Amino acid sequence: MLPEPYRLHHRADFSRTVRRGQRIGRRDLVVHALVRGYDGVMGASARQSDAAVAGSLVRVGGPRFGLIVSKAVGNAVIRHRVARRLRHMCVKVVAELPADADIVIRALPGAATADSAELLRQLRAALRKLDIARPSATVAGAG
């Protein structure tokens, strides 16, 4: 299970990552990544109380992940299965990413039939291609 500090929850965070970040497509995944320090940028829908404390917020935890699994992937059972597998893959790559990274993974229809090892390989390859993943001792033995 992906711990709470490693999750993207707000629409503004998803939008910022998809619009401002880098993107790379693989056969079964599209990976959007935005690496930056917390700069207090708030979405247009932010509450005033959030804006008042924006300067005092400190980012806690490591990289944050968001998942997009649309109906094109399959029915609800298949979508939840794909999302669950992707969350487990995110846990495996946390140590390879900088703490100030936001990653959004969009599952394509092929993700429903791809095995987990193949999806993990595609995710790691995408993160390396985006020059976000740093070498880790676990990466050498996983490939």
What topology emerges from the helices and strands here?
Blueprint: H1 11-20, E1 22-25, E2 29-35, H2 48-52, E3 64-69, H3 76-93, E4 101-107, H4 116-129, H5 137-142
Parallel strand pairs: 3-4
Antiparallel strand pairs: 1-2, 2-4
Helix pairs in contact: 3-4
Describe the structure.
This protein is of the alpha+beta class and 143 residues long. Helices cover 37% and strands 17% of the residues. The chain has a four-stranded mixed sheet, with helices on both faces. A hairpin with a 3-residue loop joins strand 1 and strand 2. Helix 3 crosses helix 4. The chain starts with 10 loop residues before the first helix and ends with a helix. The relative contact order is 0.22.
Précis, in short:
With 143 residues, this protein is of the alpha+beta class. It has five helices and four strands; from the N terminus they run αββαβαβαα. The model is unreliable at 38-57 and 138-143 (pLDDT under 50).
Keywords:
143 residues, 4 strands, disordered C terminus, four-stranded mixed beta sheet
Instruction: Detail the poorly predicted runs.
Output: 38-57, 138-143
- SS elements, strand count: 4
Order of helices and strands: HEEHEHEHH
Instruction: For the record, give the distance between the C-alpha atoms at the N and C termini, rounded to a whole number.
Output: 22 Å
Shape: globular
- Main β sheet profile: 4 strands, mixed
Q: Helical segment tally?
A: 5
The value of Rg in angstroms is: 15 Å
Structural class: alpha+beta
Q: Classify the helix fraction into a percent range.
A: 25-40%
